[in-house]
Specification:
By secondary structure, the protein is mostly helical. Helices cover about 75% and strands about 0% of the residues. The chain is built from two helices and no strands. It is elongated and about 40 Å long.
């Protein structure tokens, strides 16, 4: 994985922001497209949070 804590923290923060933006801008008019974008945003945020927590070890 990424060993540099500054790079890891920056990447984790970027993923969390990207996931939040995807969830915010998920289209509500098209049901499956909106659910897909929302799920992708949640998954990206989970990856970012996990990456940040692994840095605390």
């Amino acid at each position: 994985m990424i060993k540099n804590p500054h790079t890891r923290r920056t990447l984790a923060f970027s993923l969390i922001v990207l996931g939040g933006l995807l969830m915010f801008f998920a289209p509500e008019t098209e049901e499956w497209a909106g659910l897909t974008v929302l799920a992708l945003g949640v998954i990206i945020e989970i990856i970012g949070i996990t990456l940040e927590h692994k840095g605390g070890k």
